[in-house]
């Protein structure tokens, strides 16, 4: 499955991805929220077995399933569809937890547009909460794993600078040909 209208935003936890997604949604673009946050919410409300701090592998497997479902449900005829994290992030998490390699999970397919927008570590934005229990150094490690996977999978990375949300949104839309 490949859609050049499926745009992935990935990178470091608390780098501003969700804020960008919300802003793009307010501008009328189709958006898909982060699978991990949805899973954590569901797990906290339920039995809590597939939480990243309880069973990372089960969490990552659920994230893969949710990201695949998100991709199937997304409609490229809507124009650009922006994903807050997604299948690549979930595959990297599963690989880190001792599961199969991200490349194997993706099966040689590129589910998102070739250009991926990456948010770097941004300590001033980083905050722990009930759903995000890892520390900043773990977020930085995750960022590096995702970047290596993007390189390995042949994606073109565009790292977004640490600037105002409106400037980041303008950069994304300009580079996607929507401005």
Keywords:
5 strands, 7 helices, 12% strand, alpha/beta
Commentary on this structure:
- The protein has 179 residues and is α/β, with parallel strands linked by helices.
- It has one domain: 3-Layer(aba) Sandwich (Rossmann fold).
- It has helices spanning 17-26, 35-45, 56-73, 87-96, 102-106, 136-152, 165-175; strands spanning 6-11, 30-32, 81-84, 115-119, 156-159.
- Residues 7-168 form the NadR/Ttd14 AAA domain.
- This is NadR/Ttd14 AAA domain-containing protein.
- It holds the Pfam family AAA_28.
CATH superfamily: P-loop containing nucleotide triphosphate hydrolases
N-to-C order of helices and strands: EHEHHEHHEHEH
Strand order of the largest sheet: 2-3-1-4-5
Q: Are there runs of 5+ residues with pLDDT below 50, and where?
A: none
Give the helix/strand class.
alpha/beta
The CATH level-2 architecture is identified as 3-Layer(aba) Sandwich
Calculate the mean pLDDT score and round it: 87
Radius of gyration from the alpha-carbon trace, in angstroms: 15 Å
Helix content: 40-55%
Distance between the termini: 26 Å
How many domains, in number, for the residues? 1
Instruction: Tell me the β content.
Output: 5-15%
The level-1 CATH class: Alpha Beta
Number of strands: 5
Instruction: Report the major sheet.
Output: 5 strands, parallel
Determine the CATH topology: Rossmann fold
- Note the overall shape: globular
Helix tally? 7
Pfam family, one: AAA_28
Organism: Roseibium album
Domain NadR/Ttd14 AAA: 7-168
InterPro entries: NadR/Ttd14_AAA_dom, P-loop_NTPase
């Amino acid at each position: 499955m490949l859609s050049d209208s499926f745009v992935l935003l990935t990178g470091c936890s608390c780098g501003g991805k969700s804020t960008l997604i919300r802003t793009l949604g307010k501008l009328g673009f189709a958006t898909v929220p982060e699978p991990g946050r949805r899973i954590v919410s569901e797990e906290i409300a339920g039995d809590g077995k597939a939480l990243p701090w309880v069973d990372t592998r089960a969490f990552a497997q659920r994230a893969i399933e949710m990201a695949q479902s998100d991709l199937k449900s997304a409609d490229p005829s809507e124009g650009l569809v922006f994903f807050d994290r997604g299948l690549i992030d979930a595959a990297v998490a599963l690989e880190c937890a001792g599961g199969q390699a991200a490349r194997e999970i993706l099966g040689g397919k590129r589910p998102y547009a070739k250009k991926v927008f990456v948010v770097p570590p941004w300590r001033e934005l980083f905050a722990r909460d009930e759903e995000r229990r890892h520390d900043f150094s773990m977020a930085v490690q995750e960022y590096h794993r995702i970047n290596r996977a993007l390189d390995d999978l042949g994606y073109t990375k565009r790292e977004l600078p640490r600037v105002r949300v409106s400037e980041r949104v303008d950069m994304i839309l300009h580079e996607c040909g929507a401005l």
